[in-house]
Write a structure and sequence with these properties.
By secondary structure, this protein is α/β, with parallel strands linked by helices. Helices cover about 35% and strands about 25% of the residues.
């Protein structure tokens, strides 16, 4: 049995409403919010970045798993907003949680699915007999809001992080990963060149030929691989670039809203990029019971999707986090656009 033995989520305290952003640009905030199905987004504080968010999520994952961090032999951090172009976030996280120095570590980047790519690597390392010293692996998805002012992305891109610890001790695994599958093509729907401050995107092209093609491709490929249908799952979670795409893709695949609603967090914190699907999955694990099946599908522009089939074990109800994802999201403080800009500019100067 190889699977998840612990997870941790961190969402910054600050929030800005979509209507507040629209007010500054003299747009119809209610119409934009309704069109995106996003009410507000989480904003990193002036002293927070993808690294500090990753550290906090990692600490919570170690606490939830109840393991010795020194036994973690691999740490991977997926992000589009690593604070350094050359200087790993993963080594900072490893030191901060007490996992170093006997471990392998690296930063990953595949738009919004780098964190799930890290999970796949950890699954392989933990299950493999070589290197034998890796008892646990940790993968983190962590990002801060990136969006050009007055661009569509500014209304949806949020900040947050999620960390997962992978192990194979039967008494510790809370959700067994039964299978994983990936679907990848060269589809240039979203990109950011070196030294560019903001990412660029191909507008409507990011929908059908990019997000929907890859999420549906990964989901259908995964279900065919394990011979399962939508009705065989108790929960499903998909990458959430906005509040409408995951609902639409679920319906296209044949899932009901009740199967995905527990994992829908985007309306309250925005699209947290590499952490998006991972935070949604954590919310599902907050409620899942023994024997329940979960389909989880990430998406990263460029483009690709990673799919996972998980089954909750008898350990899951014994190891609930002290605070659920939705309880964490409810702890918030609203800021206006001026404070939002101040936080962003302060972060850039650090």
């Amino acid at each position: 049995m190889v699977g998840l033995v612990g997870y941790g989520v961190y969402v910054p305290l600050y929030r800005i409403k979509v209507e507040e952003i629209a007010r500054v640009w003299k747009k119809d905030g209610k119409a934009i919010s309704a069109g995106l199905n996003v009410k507000e987004k989480a904003v990193a504080g002036f002293d927070e970045d993808a690294c500090t968010i990753a550290v906090e999520a990692a600490r919570r994952a170690v606490q939830h798993a109840g393991i010795n961090a020194a036994d973690i032999g691999a740490v991977y951090v997926g992000s589009e907003s690593h604070p350094y172009a050359v200087k790993p976030t993963a080594s900072v996280v490893a030191d901060a949680i007490g996992a170093s120095p006997e471990l392998t570590a690296a930063d990953l980047e595949f738009a919004c699915k780098a964190g799930t790519a890290g999970i796949q690597i950890c699954l392989a390392l933990v299950e493999s007999r070589m290197p034998a010293w890796i008892k646990y692996g940790m993968s983190i998805g962590s990002d801060t809001a990136q969006g050009r002012p007055n661009d569509a992305l500014e209304f949806t891109t949020g900040s947050g992080g999620a960390a997962y610890i992978i192990g194979k001790k039967e008494s510790e695994v809370i959700a067994e990963v039964e299978e994983t599958y990936s679907y990848t093509t060269d589809t240039p729907d979203f990109w950011r060149r070196q030294h560019a401050e903001f990412p660029r995107h191909a507008g409507r092209f990011t929908g059908e030929p990019a997000y929907f093609k890859h999420v549906i491709g990964a989901a259908t490929g995964m279900m065919a691989r394990v011979n399962m249908k939508p009705q065989d799952f108790d929960f499903a979670v998909f990458h959430q670039p906005n509040g409408k795409f995951p609902i639409r893709v679920a319906k296209k695949l044949g899932f009901e809203v009740k199967q995905i609603e527990q994992g829908l967090t985007v309306s309250l914190i925005g699209n947290t990029y590499s952490a998006s699907m991972m935070i949604g999955l954590a919310s599902i694990l907050d409620k899942a019971k023994e024997g329940e099946k979960i389909l989880a599908v990430s998406y990263g522009s460029g483009a690709g999707s990673d799919a996972f089939v998980l089954e909750a074990t008898e350990n899951i109800e014994k190891k609930r986090p002290k605070k659920s994802v939705f309880e964490m999201i409810e702890e918030k403080e609203y800021i206006d656009y001026a404070e939002y800009v101040k936080f962003r500019k302060k972060l850039k100067s650090l």
